[in-house]
Specification:
150 residues; mainly alpha; 2 helices
């Protein structure tokens, strides 16, 4: 009997490749999300520290020029933090979509694996039947030969 060969092996390999590719994209997206998140946290810490310094300087006395510069700087920081927050929300939605893609591709690959397993079970059953037929023929021929010799 011929060796087991899954007729859709190339499709299965393609699904595996697609799954790996989608997982890599998801990992890159999560990595980029974490970088932006860390940057936003650092920027919030800078904002909070500057705000404390600003409050301390205000109690000691500050010129109008310094006050205007400090408020402009704080407004700019606050706006950049807000933009990063919006970027993170968008990235989180994209990560969710990518995760859905990975799940869908995983389901497709899993169904292909199950199909391959079922085909292999059928192959093994056919192989077993052929072996039984071969053994039956061998036993029949051996007894026939034994009768002819006598």
């Amino acid at each position: 009997m011929k060796k087991f060969e899954f007729s859709m092996q190339k499709v299965l390999e393609y699904k595996t490749h697609v799954k790996d590719k989608e997982k890599n994209v998801l990992a890159q997206m999560r990595s980029r999300y974490q970088e932006v998140y860390d940057e936003m946290i650092a920027m919030q810490q800078v904002y909070n520290e500057f705000n404390k310094q600003y409050a301390a300087r205000c109690t000691l006395g500050i010129t109008i020029r310094e006050l205007a510069i400090a408020r402009t700087y704080m407004a700019d920081l606050a706006e950049r933090i807000e933009q990063m927050f919006l970027l993170l929300e968008k990235a989180a939605r994209e990560i969710d979509l990518q995760l859905d893609r990975v799940i869908e591709v995983s389901k497709e690959k899993s169904s292909m694996d199950k199909l391959k397993d079922r085909c292999y079970v059928v192959y093994r059953e056919q192989q077993r039947k052929e072996m039984e037929i071969f053994i039956d023929d061998f036993v029949a021929n051996t007894s026939h030969m034994a009768l002819q010799v006598n």
